Amino acid sequence: MTVTKMRLISIRIPDELNEQLADLSEQDDLDKSTLIREVLTSGLEQKKLELALERYKKGKITLSKAAYLAGISLWKMFDILKERKIDIQYSEDDFKEDLKALNGE
Questions:
Q1: In a domain? residue 4
Q2: Is the residue at 43 inside a domain?
Q3: Which has the closest alpha carbon to 74: 100, 54, 51?
């Protein structure tokens, strides 16, 4: 059995957001703490993806670096680019860097 170390944090949220959390936790049959952790985890994953995509679109990072920063596979990143109709910017140097990344170098 794996024990996950957790830290207690305190935040202020608007009443409306608190009500939405209460409603959703009841609908999903989860306690609010568990729901908040799930929503926070999902939101962080989405934020990492959005930031990586933005940097990639601006040409600041390679495709493999964007995938790495987003915490997803290179193949998943290709799928996301296709879904969002984002042009693939791929040079010979990018290809060489991706080969190194795939080979664990």
A1: no
A2: yes
A3: 100
Q: Let me know if residue 6 belongs to a domain.
A: no
For residue 26, being part of any structural domain is answered with: yes
| Residue 39 CB neighbours (<10 A) | 13
Which residue has tokens 């049959």? 29
Contact 104, 68 (CB under 8 A): no
Domain carrying residue 82: 16-102
Token representation of residue 15: 């009443």
Over the chain (105 residues), the average pLDDT of each successive run of 10 is 86 95 94 94 97 95 92 94 89 77 74
CA distance 27 to 66: 35
- Interior angle at CA 28, CA 47 and CA 37, nearest 5: 35
Report the number of distinct structural domains present in the chain. 1
CA distance to 4, 8, 25, 32, 39, per residue, from 29 (Å): 22, 22, 6, 9, 14
